[in-house]
Amino acid sequence: MEEIVLLPEWEKQNFVQLVFPHENSDWNCCLDEAIDTFVQIAKNIAKYQKVVIVAFKIKKIKSLFINKKNIFFVGNIESNDTWSRDFGAISIKQNNKIKLLNFNFNGWGKKYPYKKDNDITFKLKLKGVFKGYIDQNIDFVLEGGSIDNNGSSILLTTSKCLLEKNRNPRFKKAQIELKLKKYFGLKKILWLNSGALKGDDTDSHIDTLARFVSKDTIVYQTAYKNSVNYDELKKMEQELKKFKDLNNKSFILIPLPPIEDILYDGEILPATYANFLIINGAVLVPIYGDKNDKKTINLFKKLFPTRDIVEIDCKVLLRQHGSLHCVTMQYY
Predict the structure, then answer these.
(1) d(CA 257, CA 241)
(2) Which residues, in sequence order, are CB contacts of 86 under 8 Å at separation 6+?
(3) Distance CA 273, CA 257 (A)
(4) Cα(292)–Cα(270) distance, rounded to whole angstroms?
(5) Which of 68, 155, 244, 245 is the most buried (most CB within 10 A)?
């Protein structure tokens, strides 16, 4: 019988993909700051494992790195934007071999231009980046940031995103659930109906709200009572408390510290500590200049005692409504 496993982030990885900002994207408003943040992310990942950096003008990006160990540069690839989590391929293990599932990406329900981003995985394949991998193109819209899993056949997601009308309008919830179970070898899907951050334009991606850190443990973002996010996150917390695993046991739930509402240019930005990235030997944690940054770092040290905890200032990434996990995609 064919066995399919959707790999959790804490499994040993081969590399992480980053697609760099450029002047013909929305990052033009703060390009130098954004590129500096991407460079810091890449440098810190490269201390532990390989990084594949994708850009059209790759020479300019390459010049920003003195130490290029573990960093591989792929040029002449155009992009609309930089959110590798959502247009990158998703890794599964099928009969003990890694397989890359290349789902369709349509700009989070056709909100933004997306055709160049949707072609990136195919172009990387042509350039040999995925040599040795088995791959499959799937005619179904799915973003990596919209799903999280525990490595043991349970998926965590949100109905606001997966049931949004412009992603897969042909399919109802039951059909989408059957597809996900087939693609990922799942036994159970946990659907959150509540949970949202003001300023998030992904329709409540799960990687901004709640994440597995082990088979039986979920961390989730909280908010201060005076925050615009309080009601939604409180309702989400109540839902999480009702979720059960395959043995009908409740999950261990660990709240992430709240963040003061961050405003930029008159709008509230979707700051969240849930947008961390697990890599080989380390966890990269987004910080925002908030009084709870240090408390959060100490919490992650307890959650991942065998890994280094690396803080990354991601305040500039919020200006385009995302954070650290959103701009990365790991491959195994």
Answers:
(1) 17
(2) 105, 108, 117, 143, 144, 145, 146, 202, 326
(3) 8
(4) 16
(5) 155
What's the CA gap between 273 and 253, in Å, rounded?
15
What are the chain's domains?
A: 4-331 (3.75.10.10)
How far apart, in Å, are the Cα atoms of 27 and each of 79, 175, 260, 269, 330? 12, 37, 24, 15, 23
Task: Strand 147-149: give its sheet, edge to edge.
Answer: 147-149, 154-158, 188-192
pLDDT score recorded for residue 22: 96
- How many angstroms from the chain centroid is the CA of residue 216? 20
- What's the pLDDT tens digit per position in 220-236? 999 999 999 999 999 99
Whether the full predicted model's pTM is greater than 0.70, yes or no, is yes
pLDDT of residue 1: 58
* Pairing outcome for strands 188-192 and 154-158: parallel
Nearest to 287, CA basis, from 278, 297, 299, 279:
297
Angle 49-118-85 (CA atoms, 0-180°, nearest 5)? 40
C-beta separation of 273 from 221 below 8 A:
yes
117-154 per-residue burial string, b: 16 or more CB within 10 A, e: under 16: bbbbbebbbeeebbeebeeeeeebbbbbbbbbbbbbbb
Can you tell me the distance from the alpha carbon of 237 to that of 250, in angstroms, rounded to the nearest whole number? 13
Percentage of residues of the chain with pLDDT beyond 70: 100
Per residue in 284-296, pLDDT (tens digit) is 999 999 999 999 9
